[in-house]
Amino acid sequence: MKKAQGTIIGAISGYYDVEINNEVVRTRARGVFRDRKQKPLVGDRVVVQIDDKGMNYLVELLPRLNEIGRPAVANVSKVLLVISAVEPDFSLELLDRYLTFFAWKNVGVVIYLSKSDIASSEKMKKIRQELMYYQKIGYLVFEDAERLEQELPKLIQKDRIWTLAGQSGAGKSTLLNKLESEANQETGAISTALNRGKHTTRQVKLFKYGEGFIADTPGFSAIDLFKIKVDELGNYFYDLKEASTKCKFRRCQHLKEPGCEVKKLVEEGKIAKSRYDSYLKIRQEIADNRMPEYLKK
């Protein structure tokens, strides 16, 4: 018997498909995971005990970076966030909600603006101006689908996992199907080994893309922010967090405190007012959800 490390790329009916050095090994989980109250997830890095007779077992779950989504994917390093220009209309508020959520989850985000080809030139001019701010604060933004497909394999580093997220109707499934179809042409052996069937939102699988993986789930369109601690919210707005180092008070909440650098930069137009407005709105949402019932009466 020998042991090897790999990544769970599929799970169904108690079996786990693990990719080890570009080969797929089907395994079962040892009872030790139940004893530890651990549930292996797609995306987990694991140690597999390989038996020459074909009885392969998961014997160890390596430390997990994160867990996001429903159904869950573990160890997501980046999210490709699909936001549409039209149908449904582009929304800065929605964009900020997603960016806040993934910052809280410690997951990087690449923004893809879909349906730009069917938006009016006037609308696209406005959206591009708004997205320039996000590029300035460090987010990579794609608008052209062909450029995205050219650059994405270079962006996905070895063994890293990406998944998609975004509003319903933005085109996540269309993009995902295209990426998966292209990837399967290059990695047919892996796809065959998995007996891949029709996509369902209840079962996550990973497919090879570039040097890493993409989760073949269209992500999720609804996100809850109420579990974020209200006094830590500013940490997940990277532009506000950077400015806050110059606030007079170390734990400034950027509300009515004197000497607030964030409010100063908003007034000067150096921080987008829409970002600050999103911060205030999400902050209120969190506060309302955390308020005890007897205080709401």
Automatic annotation (TrEMBL):
Cofactor(s), names only, from the UniProt record: Zn(2+)
Keywords associated with the record: Cytoplasm, GTP-binding, Hydrolase, Metal-binding, Nucleotide-binding, Ribosome biogenesis, RNA-binding, rRNA-binding, Zinc
Organism superkingdom: Bacteria
Cofactor: how and how many bound: Binds 1 zinc ion per subunit.
Domain EngC GTPase: 74-221
Annotated CP-type G domain residues: 65-223
A UniProt-annotated Pfam family: RsgA_GTPase
Main location: cytoplasm
Binding sites annotated in the UniProt record for Zn(2+): 247, 252, 254, 260
Gene Ontology, cellular component aspect: cytoplasm
Record-listed E.C. numbers: 3.6.1.-
GO molecular function (one): GTPase activity
UniProt subcellular location: Cytoplasm
InterPro entries for this protein: G_CP_dom (IPR030378), NA-bd_OB-fold (IPR012340), P-loop_NTPase (IPR027417), Ribosome_biogen_GTPase_RsgA (IPR004881), RsgA_GTPase_dom (IPR010914), RsgA_N (IPR031944)
A Gene Ontology BP annotation from the UniProt entry: ribosomal small subunit biogenesis
Gene3D superfamilies, alphabetized: Nucleic acid-binding proteins, P-loop containing nucleotide triphosphate hydrolases, Probable gtpase engc, domain 3
Binding sites annotated in the UniProt record for GTP: 114-117, 166-174
SUBUNIT field: Monomer. Associates with 30S ribosomal subunit, binds 16S rRNA.
Function: One of several proteins that assist in the late maturation steps of the functional core of the 30S ribosomal subunit. Helps release RbfA from mature subunits. May play a role in the assembly of ribosomal proteins into the subunit. Circularly permuted GTPase that catalyzes slow GTP hydrolysis, GTPase activity is stimulated by the 30S ribosomal subunit.
Family to which the UniProt record says this protein belongs: Belongs to the TRAFAC class YlqF/YawG GTPase family. RsgA subfamily.
Record's protein name: Small ribosomal subunit biogenesis GTPase RsgA
Organism this protein belongs to: Lactobacillus taiwanensis
Name of the gene encoding the protein in the UniProt record: rsgA
